Amino acid sequence: MIRKLLTIALSGTFAFSAHGADYDATTQAYIDQLTSMGLPAPKENQLVHIPPTMADLEAADIHPELKKVIRKGYDLFTNTQQLRGEYVFNNMNCSSCHLGEGRMPFSAPIWPAAVTLPGYRGKNGHVNNLEERIAGCFTYSMNGKPLEYGSDNMLALSAYHQWLATGVEMYPKQPVYGRGFPAPERPAELSYDNGQKLYEENCAICHSEDGSGLRVDNQTVFPATWGDMSNNWGAGIVRLFTAAGFIKNNMPLGQPNSLTDQEAWDIAFYMDSQERPQDPRYTGDIKETLEKFGPTFHKHSLYGQAREKDGEILGDHDNTGEKPFLKPDSIRPRTFD
Ligand code: HEC
Ligand code: HEC
């Protein structure tokens, strides 16, 4: 039912307005559907793009071989568990965080990466292309190992991202409507106890009280919000503002914006106070890791801090979950000197 809602909200032919508020009828109808679900309307001058659906793919006038590759990319994105044990070591699919098959605004739609990369990324301090950006989510969010650059599966996954961006200019000058997980303003105080109470009332029914989610027949029904089967400490969603933004606009599933800003932040604070697999950038020493990656990343997470409830230092362990290694070789510096 919820999935159906997302599909209805996201289907339609593609069209996009380059000029602020003057949207064509298709774009306006798309925006109306999103706002009626509780999502914010575009701000003036934002780029609104309606990514094509799989039905549009079937109807498109492109080479059948290309269709096949894009279909494969879609299949990998929505059922990433097929790579379990080799490239993926937790219960996530890419679509566990990128809702609506990677098309949903405010749920980090994936197509902007295809039109803004190659670009500089602060997280690894060098210019990344689309493959390396995808590799990033494998490394941290999937607690895994990236597909080899140039491999068949990497080509398919990249093709799916690029095809979703059909019609958008490269390096658009306008900011993209609903890009990333826009965060509500951080309240003055965050409450662990209130976060726990709200999580148990609103989230545990699907994600379970211990954060382990639900799996049936080796397929993920509800992904794990923390613990060994969740993303590791290096994933973007462990930043409090990113988690709060995700929760505010996407959870509980099908009820965007039903929580207040304070509630979304308190739940993010509670979730981020639980353990998960080690950050692959771990040097073997949490203080040293924090010194290296605090300024660019962990200053936004609770990694390395004492948990409010019991003083446990978060992330102070060498547990990598189900993954039999710590560092995939994608974690290397790149220089052009
Ligand atoms: C645990 C949640 C999670 C999972 C699972 C996940 N991602 Fe992400 N992804 C994120 C976050 C967080 C961001 C950063 C959003 C932001 O900019 O704040 C992101 C960003 C991206 C972007 C960049 C979007 C942009 O606006 O430029 C791409 C592309 C992407 N992810 C692809 C993938 C792919 C492919 C997979 C599966 C292999 C995947 N993600 C799995 C959380 C996740
Ligand atoms: C009706 C069931 C349901 C409820 C209730 C629900 N979720 Fe989710 N949640 C999902 C599903 C399903 C996904 C993955 C999306 C997909 O696969 O389509 C998800 C994804 C997530 C993710 C990203 C992946 C991960 O596991 O880290 C987070 C974080 C999350 N939910 C947090 C919450 C929070 C916090 C609440 C309560 C405010 C909540 N959810 C309530 C079903 C639910």
UniProtKB/TrEMBL annotation:
Keywords for the protein's UniProt record, in alphabetical order: Heme, Iron, Metal-binding, Signal
Compositional bias (Basic and acidic residues): 306-337
UniProt keyword annotation of Iron present: yes
Domain of life, source organism: Bacteria
Keyword Hydrolase (UniProt): no
Region (Disordered): 301-337
One Pfam family per UniProt: SoxA-TsdA_cyt-c
Coiled-coil region list: none
Signal peptide: 1-20
InterPro entries in the record: Cyt_c-like_dom, Cyt_c-like_dom_sf, Cytochrome_c-type_DH
Residue ranges annotated for the Cytochrome c domain, each copy included: 80-197, 190-275
Name of the protein in question: C-type cytochrome
